[in-house]
Prior knowledge:
Blueprint: H1 43-63, H2 68-78, E1 84-85, H3 86-102, H4 113-124, E2 129-133, H5 141-144, E3 150-154, H6 160-189, E4 205-207, H7 208-221, H8 235-248, E5 252-254, H9 260-276, H10 282-285, E6 292-295, H11 300-326, E7 335-336, H12 337-353, H13 365-377, E8 381-386, E9 392-397, H14 404-415
Antiparallel strand pairs: 1-3, 2-3, 4-6, 5-6, 7-9, 8-9
Helix pairs in contact: 2-4, 2-6, 6-7, 6-8, 6-11, 11-12, 11-13, 11-14
Amino acid sequence: MESASTSGSTPIRRNSIPNKPTKDHLKRVGSGSSLYGTDIVLEDQRQMVNQLANHIIHTCVQTQPMMSTSLLAFLLLNKHRQGVSMVELVASFDWLKQEVLNHNHDIGFVGETQDVIEYAATLLRDELVSVEIKQKASNTPEYNNNVDNIFLTPTTTLPNVFELAYYSNTVITVFQLESVIACSICAVADLDLFTCQGQSSEECTISRNEVLEKASLLCDYLQYDFTFVSPCQDLQLELSDALEKLVNGSIIEVVENEMTGDRRDQEYAQRLAKSFAQNDSDEEDGGEIDQQYTINLTDGECIEKFKFLQNVLSPFIETYWLVAFSLTKLLHSDKPETEFIKEVHQYAFDRVEKGMAYFAESVSMDCIKNAMKVYQHLKITEVYFNGNRNDTKMIGLQDRYNDRETLQMFIHSIECFRM
Length: 419
């Protein structure tokens, strides 16, 4: 075998040292956060990095195991906000645990349900969840140890509700797409779930295309709070699957006719083909059949499930509406951004203090800032530096929305999703 020293390549000197770089070889980049200057980074590279980051975030969220504290906080804020007995909570906890598993998420705890709940309540502390024994005529040890008399109530007042919401938000990813569909159905049907029980289902007929259109709009609004799908997934296909889950749960029902089965099979085949297609033509989009649904308003259990799904995203929708409503203060008059944020936050806080807001967690400053970021991204508002005011960062409306009627139409596009 020929040795390295006798090969055709240039011999390597043992004591050779690479040329030391000179100052001429060192160049200062134009960005402190990138190896490349921002002037030479192509837009497709930006998009690739952004999509890769979103893919990683989505995967991390989907693979994160759900802990007992998160499930308990989620149930208390979205299903039992006024408090619940231990017996009912055990049933709800078992249901939620099964739903998490059915949605391909992991559970990070084991044990008997009541023991898990009591341990989770201990971890959340009395400041977030109060546990009390309901005293009646009997006050015997046997009575006090009965789970029927244990009552848990969440703290829904400021500021403790923020911490409880922090634990709860982990579970939102399990139901986020179904919640988007539920809120969109209410928006399309102009439905109030708290007053509609007992109405005829025929009174609330909705169009599949209209619901999916509203759902896409809501996903656009909440894009900085949630990563609904990874970049390699089709949002419309995932929303359609979420809509089918509500059909399978009897929350909404298909308007039957002789062609219903064939149409649904054809619809699903078209959606599946589009998810693999590289380029979708406008003609294909217009070829889908618009299915009609009715909302099940006669089954109390289905209505409670519907309310639960609507509750999941309602605090976020409330915040986005508050920010949108506050944009009326910018009509024909720009303001310093920090001043505007303080005004919005104070307005949200005042609504909670006066009992006008059902969700105290809607005061969240992070959500307010995300809403402002979305409206800037959607070109509703513009942010710029005012050199005449010591480079103060200003916020104002884009020319198109600097009109009361146009701005009101935009505000209504968010308000229709509210409870």
